[in-house]
Amino acid sequence: MRLLFVLLLLSMSVGVRGAASVADEPRPEKTEKTKVSAEAGSSAAFSGKLLVVPMDGSHWVGIKAMAQELGRRGHRVTVVIPEVSMRMGPGKHYDTLTHPVPYGQSDIDVMVSMNGIMVRSDGPFMERMQTKFQHIKRVIDFIHVTAESLLFNDSFISYLEQQEFDAVLTDPVIPSGLLIARKLGLPTINLLRGIPCSLDMKSAGCPSPPSFVPRFFTGLSDRMNFKERLINTLVSSMAENMFKN
């Protein structure tokens, strides 16, 4: 069903629906609505209502492109974002709904600066890996706080229930989208390059030996010498132990 829904969304086009009026909470951002291009046609058989719950940072790039394209083709796309974020914001072909969060722009700036420090670091390999894993833990705490601020906002969730969406497009790195989809009884569409600790590989039963498949944060390719394979294996073991704890 999920695959069928995605294919329908990506292959059919209709005229853009007018934006619905929204109460003070949640607060929608006013976005420009454009007419669907002439080649899209005006008598498509299907028009979907898609709820998008994205992840911030570089993860936002792929989901934003999909939301823009689906909105351009005439589907009603609504993106849920926190009031404060690194990259997320209004778009030309989708609506946005913002929800309050218990942190400010200064907290976002600190996380971004820490990431820049890690990129420029030239210390020992194990020291750099430890710093990266500490940063990941901070990001996980940040995701947890953001998810709670959304999921425990009863008026916001109630508003989403009234919109009668057809599906939820989300990034499985964050739990918010999957939990909202379960709450609303909707199918989910997951968009992600990969899951830490190769959990996506394990769940699919796909072989992913560290001697051949490079892990996150190593910068290695699938062509590794003995030293690089050893490093990749150590990183794989550290990642698995970290997420078990």
Automatic annotation (TrEMBL):
Membrane-spanning ranges: none
A Pfam family recorded for this sequence: UDPGT
InterPro entries the UniProt entry points to: UDP-glycosyltransferase, UDP_glucos_trans
Keywords, alphabetical: Glycoprotein, Glycosyltransferase, Membrane, Signal, Transferase, Transmembrane, Transmembrane helix
EC number in record: 2.4.1.17
Main location: membrane
GO CC terms of this entry: membrane
Membrane topology recorded in Swiss-Prot or TrEMBL: Single-pass membrane protein
GO molecular function, a single term: glucuronosyltransferase activity
SUPFAM superfamilies: UDP-Glycosyltransferase/glycogen phosphorylase
Annotated compartments: Membrane
Enzyme class name: transferase
Secretion signal, residue range per the UniProt entry: 1-18
Family: Belongs to the UDP-glycosyltransferase family.
Protein name per Swiss-Prot or TrEMBL: glucuronosyltransferase
Organism taxonomic ancestry: Eukaryota, Metazoa, Chordata, Craniata, Vertebrata
